[in-house]
Amino acid sequence: MKEAIQTLITSDKMAHAFEYLKQDEAHTIDQQIELVQISSFSPFEEKRAIRFKELLTEAGLDPVMDEVHNVYAHIHGTGNGPTLYVSAHLDTVFPPETPLPVKREGTKIYAPGIGDDTRGLAEILTLARVIKESGLKPVGDIIIGGNVGEEGLGDLRGMRHFFSKNADKVDGFISVDGAGCLICHGGTGSHRYEVTFRGPGGHSFGAFGLVNPIFAMGRAISYISELRTPREPKTTFSVGVVNGGTSINAIAYECSMLVDIRSNGLKELEELDAKLQECIKRAVEDENNRWETERSYEESKDSFDHNGRITVDVKQIGNRPAGSQPKDCEIVSATASAFQACGEDVEFESAGSTDANIPISLGIPAICVGGGGKGGACHSVDEWYDSKDAYKGSQRVLAAIFALVGLDGVSEPLLSRRKK
């Protein structure tokens, strides 16, 4: 494998492509800055998707936009190799009203979303250009583009949609996400819930003695906070948002919380989910038992549907599947070897919550890689990206792509075709 990759990256074709990427970096940064100023909060990615599609067209490709606003184009090979899908996500975590100013200090750029994942999108565009301009003909096929729904409550809807229609056509997947030289080769699974507690509500003094949804939610949060989880595989829980109530002097009739649980292991995720559901059930029962008096029942039963008791609605709003792959599998080994051949020190991450979760869960070889440069303050309005030598990230991703799909006349694919 290392010999094949060395032959690839020292070829005249790849040397020319590497030089193109270096010279194209200023253009790449300009597009990164243009795209970061187009609000793209999930699920409102359409405006950025339209512009990204235009830029892919300018790069010489023939992209399409699907029903959920994924944008991608096919680069056809000789017909004798695997199909690799390479994508970056179009969405960000910043609501539409968030100001998106850009500040530059030397090679450092400050803007919300500048790294995650606007850098990935800009890199997709420069990769599209170099493949066309340098006349790189793959042996296998390449699908290249941008997808929606990676962040927040997007629940990987872009990947779900694409692979629901194309899983049998893809042999491997690379997500280009953020900065650095990282290879993430596993999927951290997560379940997300909106939990709504309801009760009769009433005056804080005059109706004292009624059950209180906020008390029930508080009990649930307390019980959840006492859960214990394994260190390996890493398994976590969080109550991230709470809402409810109408006034300081009113017993709330409704409140809600958003809960996130995660694990690198499917079994551990399911076990934690069961414990979470038990915490919620116990909290409702304890609140009803604490305040279930003749007075509270009689005063509420004729006026409310709740029969003077707390009810709860548990709605799942996110379900990212967990999955794993051996560190020495083809797609990881070939990509790592390509990165190392480009002179990079590779950092491995066994699992993460990325677009690669979906293909991994389907048995499709998939990884998430950094797009070069350096970044920080991710998911904050102070996010920054340092573009010094960022073109090296584009070079190593290009090397990985052609190591996997093969370069006509130079190297054979290192990624196997899957049995469909």
Secondary-structure blueprint:
Elements: H1 2-9, H2 12-36, H3 46-58, E1 64-65, E2 71-75, E3 83-89, E4 103-105, E5 108-110, H4 118-133, E6 141-147, H5 157-166, E7 172-176, E8 182-184, E9 189-198, E10 202-203, H6 213-225, E11 235-244, E12 250-251, E13 254-263, H7 266-291, H8 294-300, E14 311-320, H9 330-341, E15 347-349, H10 357-361, E16 366-369, E17 374-376, E18 384-386, H11 391-405
Parallel strand pairs: 3-6, 3-7, 7-16, 8-15
Antiparallel strand pairs: 1-2, 2-6, 4-5, 5-18, 8-16, 9-13, 9-14, 10-12, 11-13, 17-18
Helix pairs in contact: 1-9, 2-4, 2-11, 6-7, 9-11
Question: What do these coordinates show?
Answer:
The chain has 420 residues and is of the alpha+beta class. Helices cover 36% and strands 22% of the residues. The protein contains 11 helices and 18 strands. The protein has helices spanning 2-9, 12-36, 46-58, 118-133, 157-166, 213-225, 266-291, 294-300, 330-341, 357-361, 391-405, and strands spanning 64-65, 71-75, 83-89, 103-105, 108-110, 141-147, 172-176, 182-184, 189-198, 202-203, 235-244, 250-251, 254-263, 311-320, 347-349, 366-369, 374-376, 384-386. The strands form 4 sheets. An 8-stranded mixed beta sheet has the order 1-2-6-3-7-16-8-15. Helix 1 (2-9) packs across helix 9 (330-341) and helix 2 packs antiparallel against helix 4 (118-133).
